[in-house]
Amino acid sequence: MTEENNKPKFRSTPLDPNQRGLKKAFSMVQSFAVALASRNLNNKKINKPIKQLRVLSCFGNQDGGGELPPCEYLQKSETDSAKHICGGCGCGDRQATWLVVESDEYGKLDYPKLACPLQMPGFTNYIVSNPDEAVEPVTRKYYIENIDYDSLQDVEVKIGEYVEDPKEEEKTGPVPVPEEE
């Protein structure tokens, strides 16, 4: 038996066939508007555990020695070969749609509210896998839902600087500055 035969096989997940034509276009516009609104005026970013789930959902963990392959819709950007885009959502290939960027920039996976066409873990529209997804070969979604927490913590992500929410300052009030005498 070869090493290739020992690797787990993952079932492919088709995109929702109901998302076509005008319905898909409206859904994309709505999803983009929700993502932009979630970014807020101060470029709020997602927290580390959620971004780790998103990176695992898109890129898998084979680069780190794991067994989960990348999403079948993950594509290399044609404008920058070091970047990747989602080929399943239909957002196109431009800097604003690159999934992961440098930590001081804002990538698609940084948006607090972000939809995935496969409704994978870590995304706003995530739906738990169906029982039949646990039958061999399992789906990538089922595998991620059942991954060991320590393995998830091993997923490397860049978050960048956290921009504090101004509403938090309202709750605590401004920090008093001592007056000079």
Question: Could you give a quick summary of the protein structure above?
Answer:
With 181 residues, the chain is mainly alpha-helical. Helices cover 29% and strands 3% of the residues. It is globular.
Task: Write down the domain tally.
Answer: 1
What percent of residues adopt helix (DSSP H or I)?
Answer: 25-40%
Counting H and I runs of at least 4 residues, what is the number of helices?
6
Largest sheet features = 2 strands, antiparallel
Ends: how far apart?
Answer: 82 Å
The average pLDDT is 79
What is the strand content? under 5%
Q: How many extended strands?
A: 2
Could you state the order of secondary-structure elements as H and E?
HHHEEHHH
What shape does the CA trace take? globular
Oligomeric state of the chains in view = single chain
Low-confidence stretches: 162-177
- Report the C-alpha radius of gyration, rounded: 19 Å
Task: Output the strand order for the largest sheet.
Answer: 1-2
Structural class comes to mainly alpha
Any chance you could write out the topology, listing elements then pairs?
Blueprint: H1 3-6, H2 21-39, H3 48-59, E1 74-76, E2 84-86, H4 140-145, H5 149-153, H6 166-172
Antiparallel strand pairs: 1-2
Describe the structure.
The structure is a single chain. This protein has 181 residues and is mainly alpha-helical. It has one domain. Helix content is 29%, strand content 3%. It has six helices and two strands. The chain has helices spanning 3-6, 21-39, 48-59, 140-145, 149-153, 166-172, and strands spanning 74-76, 84-86. Mean pLDDT is 79; it is low at 162-177.
